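Researcher: Going back to the complex we discussed earlier. I've cleaned up the inputs and rechecked each line, so this should be the final set. Can you rerun the prediction on the complete assembly and write out the structure?
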Amino acid sequence: MKKVELVQISKSYNHHTNVLENINVSIEPGEFFVLVGPSGCGKSTLLRMIAGLEDISQGKLFIGGHHANLLRPSQRGISFVFQNYALYPHLTVAENIVFGLQAQKVPKNERNKRCIEVADMLGLIPFLKRKPRELSGGQRQRVALARSIVSQAPICLMDEPLSNLDAKLRSHMRSEIKQIQRRLGLTMIYVTHDQVEAMTMGDRIMVLNEGKIQQIGDPLQIYNHPANAFVAQFIGSPPMNLIPATFNKQKQTIQIEYHHEILVPLHDVRNISNEDIIVGIRPEDIHLARNEPIHFQIEVVNVEVLGTETIISFKIKDQQWSMKWNGQWRIAIGDRIPISLDYQVLSIFDSKTGTALKNAKADTHYKINEVNL
Amino acid sequence: MKKVGYSIIILWFVLIMSACSEQTSKNELTKTNESSEDQRVGTKDGDKTKVVFWHSMGGKLQETLDSIVNKYNQSQNEYEIVAEYQGSYEEALTKLRSVGGTDDAPAIMQTFEVGTKYMIDSGFFEPIQTFIDKEDYEMDLLEENIINYYKVDGKFHSMPFNSSTPVLIYNKDAFTEVGLDENKAPRTYSEIKEAAKKLTSVNGNVTDRFGFSMLTYGWFFEQLLATQGGLYVDQNNGRSGDAENVLFNGEEGLRIFNLLNGMNQAGTFGNFGSNWDDIRAAFQSGKVAMYMDSSSGVRNAIENSPFEVGVGFIPHPDNMEPQGVVIGGASLWLSKGIDESIQDGAWNFMKYLQTPEIQAIWHVETGYFAITPAAYEEQLVKDEHSKYPQLKVTVDQLQSTKSQPATQGALISVFPESRQQVVTALENLYQGMAPQEALNQAARGTERAMEIANRTKNKE
Amino acid sequence: MKVVVDEEHKGQIPATINKLSFLSRTLNNRTALLYLLPSIVLFSVFVFYPMFKTVYLSFFLTDLQGRPAEFVGLENFQYLIQSESFHKSIKATLLFVLYTVPISIVTALFLAIIANEKLKGIGVFRTLFSSTMGMSVAASSVIWLFLFHPSIGAINRLLSIFNIQAIEWLVDPSWALISISITTIWMNTGFTFLILLGGLQNIDENLYESASIDGASFWYKMRRITIPMLSPTLFFIITITLINAFQTFGQVDILTKGGPAESTNLIVYSIYREAFINYQFGTASAQAIVLFFFILIVTILQFKFGEKRVFYQ
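Model: Rerun complete. Updated structure for the full complex:
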């Protein structure tokens, strides 16, 4: 169990533009830390810098309290799972698993013992003699995992390890990886572009965009209190609905389009200084208007009935929104439905910087949690 | 892969560029061909009859030949000679083999002396005796030795053209340096051996200068054989019938191999391979003091050597009267079965080449012999000989040659192959093979080739 | 078609049906044949015909014009078996293959590995290393002819600086084959390098990164990753280089003409000499057939024993 600290780390390939800027984070021993962000945000680069596969242009990296910038990858006490698994196609599963041990001249008996142990843990025993191309995607994934575990490195780095699997297998492997991490007490740094993986697996999440940290926090913190519009939209499925709006200080209302106005409570008026704002609302927070006085009349453009919930899409001001209702709803495309937007569940962001000015109240969620507890 | 792609593109550029430069040089080569419309035998085009002439005179020789051809073309209005360079004698022969007897064959073909028998046997050519008889052309004006070589069964098949003989070329300065008489070229084997021994200078285990060298080329062997009166093959050197047995591995041939072997073992013989340029460079840079060259290389040696150059007769065994040399070089052949006017043109041009004025130019500019002795009386030649007295030696050697089958030269159709066998024998000799064994190997190879040639000769 | 004609006697309609069905049945084959036609024609003219002609000629003696004149059965082959010169040819060829193939490939592999690094300006080196590919055999041979020149060649001058006795590269029979081999290796390098570099670049970079994390040394990576992953490329290039070595001609023709003492008289050169200097097409064809079987056997052996070690992805 080792701590990984990144201090003021930047990466630049051409001395002019930074692909990563000012990364500061401390990853605790035994923590499952997820780096999430859209493709090209620099998350893989950051992971490769921690592994020693890329140089660190600026800043310092500490692993287990030691300055690690110049250490070779093999000296950092890490294992690495690649997106494409990087299995040696000409070697059998067993040979793949012990490849690193062999390179380090671990005695044969020990090698075999550890190989069997790990293979057993991951259910690979029947496949030890096979070549990677004779395995299914999930099995290959497991071999990559086994190779990482067998090294007994205290820190495990994973670069989108599940992105090549189908959805069902992915969700299965999610929990399997999480369980192994917990059981072995590994410090895990896990890169993904999939917010579901980030939410379900991470103890903490770092959201990256365009080489900059957007937010670091535990999954619910990030979901409920997104630091900015980017995080708000990136985390959550379907994503948070966003729409530009104007805040009218005199009337103390938020105006969406021309005829929709939402009253802002007095204590919030002070917080909102801009006229141009972005209003965000999570799909699950949009309700069918029953007797509310203020409501929108929307026209349904798409309906997805998922069994326990129904996702209804509609258009507002040229933007497609979606809302998620519990239960199964029979709604036809083209139906007109009245909906209500409660001020409490609105998130408000600065339209220029994207910074959150107000987060949605999430009391109801906390209540449910408490009930469960 | 991107980088590799980039490299490939650059490579292509280089390739295309080099291809372009090749293209231009090829174009230059083919330019003369195109002017003749498909390299025909010749065509009657308006007033002038075109006569195609294939030759193997490259480099400076080609310039001289072209200027002579031009001169001829301007001297009359009936015929136009189209001279086309076809590579070495061997290469030209190879081309001829594929077009011989067809419309694409040239009207005049230049072929080296050892191709004589092959050319006769091929049947593609009209013996020029036909034309000689028709107008009682005087061939006796030509050099006797040359007549002896090219007259086969009392008949001229081709017109002699460029002729050369071997000579001994030596470094006069080196002779003086080691106390030898610079004006007396060694003539006998023991003189050669002795001089070579004196001339060789060794520094540690590096030989700075070898005493003697000879190009690894069958022609020199043939000459050293002929000067002893030794025959190359039976049937009077193939002149009284198709030769069947090789004679060059007899005592005369063995004397030559023993001489070379002795000097090689003594370290006084330098082996510079089978490339003319290499041995000439070795002589001119002082790495060898005596060597055998063609008479056509004499002037070049004198002009390019930073020391005085002497020329002597080729060596002969002790206590033996030297018989002289065999004429080397090439002759011109006239195609059979082509338009009579073209044949007339070809014949007319051949006669033009024999005139003393033309022979004088040819001799002075190329170093080949004037095949018409009258040319030596031309002022041009006299001036040249007073400037380069060494040239006179080559003429003397030729004119002192005694006419007999040995110096007439052998007639066999497989001469190129036989020469190759002799070259291999010489190389084996220098590598330590016993002289008789090396000679016998070459003889066996030659005999097999002759046997096959005789077996297949009349089975068409 | 005859069948169709016969069918017509049975009546108009069935015949038409049969005719149609015959045509339509063979439609696919006929289309396939049409597509194959150009290559069949080209192959027949430039490969099959010369091949059969070679076999045919090997049973004949040819006259001075190179026409088959006398049928002699296996005499040409018997002659080859006894011919010392041909034995020398075979020995020289085998030695030549032995000298050139391994060294060419190891050299090119070395260059490819160092050129596979991602460094600034590496493109220049890649271009340089592969540049010999763009040179014709003739041009490169002439360059080496100058380098090997006994008295004014660059190599001997260099040797003389270090006070080493000049070597008669092309004149000394014990050196000539080595000189030809050096030239050939130099000429092979460009193409071999390019192919191997391509092969190296196809190896997933992650494999090396993974091995680095595991602490594998350079040689360990070389042995366990590079060579096995490169094996299809290596196999291909070894086969090509082998066959090329057996068929070497240009550099021999320009540098040594098969000499001295037949020490560089490789089989193909010997064939050329026999056919185009001596006009013995029969013996030449017999040699060509022997060479064909040589290459065939070597290739079969290579596929049989070499291919086992090849890993195809």
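Model: Worth noting: The first strand of chain A starts at residue 4 and ends at 12.
Researcher: Good, that matches what I expected from the previous run.
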